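COURSE: Structural Biology Practicum
ASSIGNMENT: Worksheet 4, Part C
STUDENT ID: 0417
INSTRUCTIONS: Below are two proteins. For each, the amino acid sequence is given first, followed by its structure token string. Answer the questions at the end about the second protein only.

PROTEIN I
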Amino acid sequence: MIATLLLAAGQSSRMGGRDKLLETVDGVPLLALLTARALSVGPTFVTLPSADHRRRFALPQSAQIVVVDANLGMAHSIKAGIAALRDTATGVMILPADMPDITAADMAVVQAAANLSSAPIVRATTSQGTPGHPIYFAASQFSRFDDLHGDRGAHRLTIGLEDQTLLVPLQGDRARLDLDTPQDWDAYRAR
């Protein structure tokens, strides 16, 4: 089983008091949209900053919630998500929850590539080949997550393993498009 880990424990600190994961896309909160897309592909775990955080109410019942201390950074969020995976997980597909253009089909393509390949890492790229998300890690790589610290993502774990990483191009720039500021959201909605 390959699980999806949606990282949704960040503080939206650049949003001027708004929560980027509760901004609406296609009439629903972004977090709800991405979670539904991930659930259509397989088991989904979502990291949240607290058990009673308002983002929890945007999640479908079938999503598994992992509560983390958001002040400890993204690495802590990733490690808590990895720890929550059942022992039966053959791998994990990690995706920040602020990437509205990632579709269920994109996630399925990355997951299918992971199932068909012996590569321990499968990484989505833009159509021009720039690495992005989602990133798949085989269970054989889980112990490497212990070395992550601070507000750094799993990208660091791919450095030096380029020869063991399968790149999967997604359409346009969707593998890199994230929305962190009100200006990002305005530009996204205006396009």
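PROTEIN II
(use this one for the questions)
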Amino acid sequence: MTASNPDHARIAAGLVDLLDLRPVDAAGAASSPTAIAVYEGDSSPQPGGHVFGGQVMGQAVTAVGRTVPEGRRIHSMYSYFLAPGDPAHPIRFEVDALRDGGSFSVRRVLATQPGRTEEEGERTILAMTASFQEEQEGLEHAEHAPEAPDPEGLPTTAEVLAGIEHPVAEYWSTQRPIDIRHVTDPIYLRPDANAGTIDAQMVWMRTLAPVDADPLLHDAILAFASDYTPFEPILRKQGLSWMTPGLKMATIDHAIWWHRHVRADEWLLYVQRSPSASGGRGLTHGQIFDRSGELVATVTQEGMIRAPRRG
């Protein structure tokens, strides 16, 4: 397939392979005496030579999920992004068991890579704590999705960026494994026309093609996809776009609560708003709804944002 006609099934299958980690002998590889499992994963090439934070987070979800008793699914996780990843080196995920109770299990995982120098040694690029629960009955209520047009009638990223010659635009158009369609006008190229008055947006998202994966990997894909657009409500409010010269952004921390479990290859509506930006940081709150309008996950992300001085 050519860049203008990418193989969506191959790209989606590649995402599953990326998140499907290799086990490593913990006895010989673990640096912590309390580690119960060690896994290793590779990185997908990105424009600019960095590792996508959502990739490391999704891989970490896979790592911790493979160490809990059968029948327990992730219901919450909190990640700190501590250093940029280097795509030239595999990433190692070392899992500690913090608790196994009658219904819940809690795990901690550190994602590490070799340091840039011998003196630096191993460096931690992400730290995650995650909690799992066996399926149980209980009280039920949920918010419902706001009105939104169907995703099939919205332009794809490739259609929005058609004719733009830029490495990032080409990657988003032809290689990104998540199909993202903006309900609110995209801000890839230019700021929102309502800058200063709007701090919210909605996007539909799913994998580019159906994926054959176990439920844990669908949870990992949701974590992966949740990291693509949280900065955008902040940019909308501030009159910025992804192409603003001198703009620098990096995720500091990212939390997800799974209320219900879904397939990541079915359309999900991601509703996002930014309640605050201060001190070089911006906060985004997101809700993810399934196609029927039921709330399936809540996401909160804080990021570093360095924008050029104005005026």
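ANSWER KEY EXCERPT:
Q1: The first strand starts at residue 22 and ends at 24.
Q2: The radius of gyration is 19 Å.
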